[in-house]
Task: inverse folding
């Protein structure tokens, strides 16, 4: 089968063996894939969690049909239209654990379905489970113009946030954040952004920051979070290392929580997918929670899709179809 593989000459489409499902695995005939920032790094040979390097079939988000079931797989049957996440997604067929997929709604095509699994699982876990957002509270999404960022703002609004603030350093994308739930859009490269947040929150700061930027804004985040507020760190777009004001962290008694899928067990990931189904799936089916598609490429042009991502001018998801 055809797959997008990182090899000695970089990432390219290659022929690889079709996988077979074992245990609780499901074999998926892939129809569309969503691109993610971690994929971009892996096309350059970077390791993401335990995956990456020579011989890796790339990709982590897909939509398709159940082609075959492992002996212990439950909850779906051959022919079901599904979407999910897991390794080796950029291929004609991929494997997924039966607990790491969603049934694709009937009113959604494969391209639309492929935009959602990573954003839904990541940001429900960050905003609701770890962020503990309550109705009437305020939230700042750092890196809000990414696909997962756009989803975070929508989930926050759905869960009753009084004030949603989104950040983007790009003026065009920042100007569109209100379409996806932002009450206020800020530029986190502007030294005055903390004052804007404090002005919008009567000088207190926000109840919750979901931070996809980290390093470059770490201390400003502390100043923009209210006493006894929460910061959930889900990314490193601003760098993995930075000076950190421990005194300010202690003085404001901030709960600072790190989350990632890279070190989670399959049991933990299944629980996250279960929480999405139980808590917000009705909003997915009614299309209250959805992501814009910036551009669709055929699989043969997946290299161009990554060039488009690297140019960093898109808003929403880049999708590849098979």
Result:
């Amino acid at each position: 089968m055809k797959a997008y593989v990182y090899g000695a000459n970089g990432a390219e489409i290659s022929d690889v063996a079709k996988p077979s499902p074992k245990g609780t695995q499901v074999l998926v005939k892939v129809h569309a894939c969503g691109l993610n920032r971690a994929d971009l790094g892996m096309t350059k040979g970077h390791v993401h969690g335990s995956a990456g390097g020579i011989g890796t079939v790339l990709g982590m988000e897909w939509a398709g049909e159940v082609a075959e079931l492992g002996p212990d797989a439950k909850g779906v049957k051959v022919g079901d239209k599904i979407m999910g996440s897991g390794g080796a997604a950029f291929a004609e067929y991929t494997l997924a654990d039966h607990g790491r997929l969603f049934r694709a709604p009937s009113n959604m095509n494969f391209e639309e379905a492929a935009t959602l699994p990573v954003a839904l699982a990541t940001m429900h876990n960050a905003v609701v489970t770890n962020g503990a957002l309550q109705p009437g509270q305020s939230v700042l999404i750092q890196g809000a113009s990414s696909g997962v960022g756009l989803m975070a703002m929508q989930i926050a609004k759905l869960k009753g946030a009084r004030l949603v603030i989104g950040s983007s350093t790009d003026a065009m994308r920042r100007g569109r954040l209100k379409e996806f739930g932002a009450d206020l859009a800020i530029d986190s490269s502007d030294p005055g952004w903390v004052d804007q947040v404090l002005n919008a929150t009567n000088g207190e700061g926000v109840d919750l920051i979901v931070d996809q930027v980290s390093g470059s804004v770490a201390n400003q985040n502390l100043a923009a979070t209210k006493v006894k507020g929460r910061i959930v760190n889900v990314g490193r777009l601003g760098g993995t290392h930075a000076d950190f004001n421990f005194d300010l962290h202690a003085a404001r008694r901030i709960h600072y929580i790190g989350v990632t899928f890279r070190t989670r067990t399959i049991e933990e990931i299944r629980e996250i997918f279960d929480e999405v189904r139980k808590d917000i799936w009705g909003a997915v089916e009614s299309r209250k929670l959805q992501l814009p598609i910036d551009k669709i490429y055929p699989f043969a042009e997946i290299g161009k899709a990554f060039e488009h991502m690297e140019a960093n001018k898109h808003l929403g998801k880049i999708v590849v179809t098979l």
